[in-house]
Amino acid sequence: MPGKTPQRKGGNNKPVENGVRSTKDVEGGKGKAKKSAAKDTDEEMTVVVPPSKKQSSASPPADADGDVAMGDEDKGEEGTVEVDPAVQAVADIKSNFALLDRAVALFDARFSLRALRSISLIRKRLSPDVIAQAIVDTFPATVTSGNIAKNLLVVLGRESMPLGKSSSSAAEMEVDSDSSSKPAKNNGPKKEVKEIIPEVDIFLGILIQVYLFDSKQYKKGAEFSQYLSERIQALNRRTLDSLSAKVYFYFSLFCEHMEPLPPSPESPIVAIRPTLLAALRTAVLRKDIDTQASVIVLLLRNYLLTSHINQADLLVSHTQFPENAVNNQVARFLYYLGRIRAIQLRYTEAHEHLTAATRKAPGSNCALGFSQTATKLLLVVELLMGDIPDRSTFRQANMEDALHPYLLLVQAVRVGNLENFETTIADHADTFRRDGTYTLILRLRQNVIKTGIRMMSLSYSRISLRDICIRLHLGSEESAEYIVAKAIRDGVIEATLDRERGFMKSKEVGDVYATREPGEAFHDRIQACLALHNESVKAMRFPMNQHRLELKNAQEAREREREMAKEIQEGDLDEDDLGGDFEGM
């Protein structure tokens, strides 16, 4: 019968099968077990054996009355419950608020950067409902926080959602009300509502920017970015530096995709230049390194998109890029600086900047596009300098397809075949224009001719101008004579030109190792290694204000020694009291 404990006959009784009993059997058997234990002290105790893990997956056994325990079924149901992706996305967003709180409490920007890096993980799950739910769960229904939250909800189109009521807390309230019918007791005064730090709503604003950009709502995103930038300028908090840099990045990105597109002079990117310049001025005055580096890069990109090279050069000459900037921003700055120098025919400086940019680019696939773009421009600059790029550059797995047109270009320049060079440009003109290297590649025609002349000077001790004209597909012998004379003057070849007889005579090639060229190349390698070492040392991070803690501990130790010395002089302490380890000052 249910509720009745099975009777024991003597001391050799066995426990119930698998030790599974209903709740009523256990509760009802407590009093009887105490009485039987008092009467029969010599009887053995009944041992309850818990079900093994292997048996938990099978169907639970029935007791003597045919009742089945429900505990295992509950566990099975919990194991099959799947978490709603929207709820998980809201939880992931709210988990970053703790990092922002630590960034403000410890004044450490690394926690803010960690929160920004998590955006890539939740980017695909962002939606107006997810972001709005995170805002509603976070902001209390106060006047200040309510106005900020309403501004964010209006952009998402969810301004009707009430603040301060989360779905999880509502579910808990329903469960509590169902489980107990008694009225809740007043445990005391209500807890004070904690104000939300500005970093949280700016972070939520960045999530809204990401969603608007992914959904291609560029005009709405630009208007909202203007609101965020004005709020950041009004707050003036150093813990917002890394977040404000991201806000201005998306602000510029929205304007780039709005009609009319650059390089049109009526593009919206021209209209945001005063805003970016004002942000740069404010960032310099506030010593905001993150915003300063980001805005300088955005301004350089802005000028280059509209082909305002002189303004970009003036910006570089009148501003100083921060040395402690993030590595990604340094790589972008070096790339744009290399592009400016290449357009200005300063190929040596452009080669240095682009080489540093490719080295600083992340090795992962997340920055593959930047690495490909910088490498393409670097290859063109090397060709303009008269050098031939290494073939291993084109054999990289993630570069092979993207650099195939440039491989054909390098092959034509290396051989000095003008016909193949012009054919390659005609076949891949769209690709070169899209990469922004078409105008630079057109300059390579003279280099192809010089390379052809150099190959001829190495192959022949004497060659006529007519043969040069035929091999290089030139229009006349006069143009061939002019090109040969210019190559001799520039030091491309070592030869003499006989105009009366109409031929070029090459000089004997000397030993390269007898010149200073190997030593100069070795010196350049050493300079590059030393520069890389200095940059690595500057990039090292140390705990903030650690030296102050050490100074404080040392000062406290000196004060304790002075007090102990004073007490010894006054006779209050002896050396025996100190353990014999005290040394006089």
TrEMBL record:
Entries under InterPro entries matching the protein: CSN3, PCI_dom, PSMD3_C, TPR_PSMD3_N, WH_DNA-bd_sf
Entry's Gene Ontology cellular component terms: proteasome regulatory particle, lid subcomplex
Keywords on record: Proteasome
PCI domain span: 331-511
Family: Belongs to the proteasome subunit S3 family.
UniProt entry tagged with the keyword Transferase: no
GO molecular function, one term: enzyme regulator activity
Superkingdom assignment: Eukaryota
Keyword Lipoprotein belongs to the record: no
Biased composition (Basic and acidic residues): 555-569
Annotated PANTHER family: 26S PROTEASOME NON-ATPASE REGULATORY SUBUNIT 3, 26S PROTEASOME NON-ATPASE REGULATORY SUBUNIT 3/COP9 SIGNALOSOME COMPLEX SUBUNIT 3
Compositional bias (Low complexity): 47-63
Bias kind Acidic residues: ranges: 64-81, 570-585
Protein name, as recorded: 26S proteasome regulatory subunit-like protein
